[in-house]
Amino acid sequence: MTTPDHVPTLRFIARCIHDDIRDSQFDGLTGDEAATAIAKRIEEAAEREEDRQDDSQGLSAGERAEVRQRWHESRRRADSEYA
């Protein structure tokens, strides 16, 4: 279910995918390879956006690293549950 809180995130993801689809570096990749590359780009862009937001909230680099580590751990757990 999509809530109003999800709209900015969905727009962000759509923009990343749109930019990547137009990127010629994906020519010749299989669907899975392209999906993996796009997912990695989205994750990197999301981390940059989180850093920008954290900076505006005054979080230190150490606090950002701790939050990111917890997020990656929860993502790995979720990925393993659905694998």
Automatic annotation (TrEMBL):
<protein>
    <submittedName>
        <fullName>Uncharacterized protein</fullName>
    </submittedName>
</protein>
<feature type="compositionally biased region" description="Basic and acidic residues">
    <location>
        <begin position="41"/>
        <end position="55"/>
    </location>
</feature>
<feature type="compositionally biased region" description="Basic and acidic residues">
    <location>
        <begin position="63"/>
        <end position="83"/>
    </location>
</feature>
<feature type="region of interest" description="Disordered">
    <location>
        <begin position="41"/>
        <end position="83"/>
    </location>
</feature>
